[in-house]
Design goal:
It is a single chain. The strands form 4 sheets. The chain has a 6-stranded parallel sheet with strand order 2-7-1-10-11-12, sandwiched between helices. It has a single domain, classed as Rossmann fold, CATH 3.40.50.300. The chain is of the alpha/beta class and about 260 residues long. The chain is globular and about 45 Å long. About 35% of the residues lie in helices and about 20% in strands. Bound molecules: adenosine-5'-triphosphate and magnesium ion (MG). The site of adenosine-5'-triphosphate (ATP) has 18 residues, from helix 1.
């Protein structure tokens, strides 16, 4: 599969991380936030200054003060240990739970790559561990136009991930259809020259027919280590810690990017 190279600017050299990753998933609602929060809990347990980032969040609820909150952002904030705000880790937050570039158009606030990258760089200055959660799947569109002057150019989350050059962790929501979604996502990650550092089998549904066979199929076809199988969790509180207990961090020395 050939995809256009990222048209986002290369980042200047940044301090090395103890752990950094971009968490993507086979779809929306497959457990990216749960796994991102669990990875952060593992980083915090190691004593690292750890922070999550949700570059773009679509779907919010209004709090008593009238501010718009997003549940992913709140969960990532709770899982990390840096004194950062929702705006620090989430530069774009939209009200409607729809595709980000559509929410951006509806609210008249287009997603600017320079703003995403500046937020990321800010967090990199403060963190030893950084977990970036995508939105939806790997190739979700973010904007129709990178520079504002080229109607033919589009960019998406895959471009943003390529600009960060972080290893990617793929969350597979274990349900019917996930084999195709997982393999397409692996191909797209590889086509961007990014490293698939590991994947997580997340049991989003309590029952999946032929779970073990599906797991074995993925293990034989995904070219990255299985970091853990997260069971369907019945707890409502402490879910990130419960998931963390089923996961390991893929560590291979200090991570740049
Ligand atoms: N292993 C699990 N056991 C039980 N519930 C789960 C599990 N994994 C995820 N969930 C639940 O499924 C829902 C979706 O999970 P989550 O928000 O992490 O998905 P997501 O991929 O981050 O979605 P989005 O695309 O909106 O960011 C949440 O309510 C979460 O609590
Ligand atoms: Mg999420």
């Amino acid at each position: 599969m050939k995809l256009a190279p990222s048209s986002l600017p290369a980042l200047p050299a940044l301090p090395a991380l103890q752990f950094g990753c971009f968490v993507t998933g086979t779809d929306t609602d497959v457990g990216k936030t749960l796994i991102a929060a669990a990875l952060l809990r593992l980083c915090v347990a190691r004593g690292w200054r750890s922070v999550g980032m949700k570059p773009v969040a679509a779907g919010g609820t209004q709090d008593e003060q009238g501010a718009w909150r997003n549940v992913d952002v709140e969960q990532l904030l709770a899982a990390g240990n840096l004194p950062v705000t929702a705006d620090d880790i989430n530069p774009y937050r939209y009200r409607e739970a729809i595709a980000p570039h559509l929410a951006a158009a509806h609210e008249g606030r287009p997603i600017e790559a320079s703003v995403l990258l500046a937020s990321y760089q800010q967090l990199r200055q403060q963190a030893e561990a950084l977990v970036v959660e995508g939105a939806g799947g790997f190739m979700v569109p973010l904007a129709n136009d990178v520079n504002g002057d080229d109607a033919g150019s589009h960019y998406g989350l895959d471009d943003f991930a390529a600009a960060l050059q972080l290893p990617v962790i793929l969350v597979v929501g274990m349900r019917l259809g996930c084999l195709n979604h997982a393999l397409l996502t692996q191909a797209a990650i590889q086509a961007r020259g990014l490293k698939l550092a590991g994947w997580v089998a997340n049991r989003v549904t309590p029952q999946m027919s032929c779970f073990e066979e599906n797991l074995a199929t993925l293990q034989s076809r995904l070219q990255a280590p299985l970091l853990g199988v997260v069971p369907h969790l019945s707890v409502r509180h402490g879910m990130a810690d419960a998931a963390a207990a089923c996961l390991r961090l893929p560590l291979s020395g200090k991570q740049g990017g």
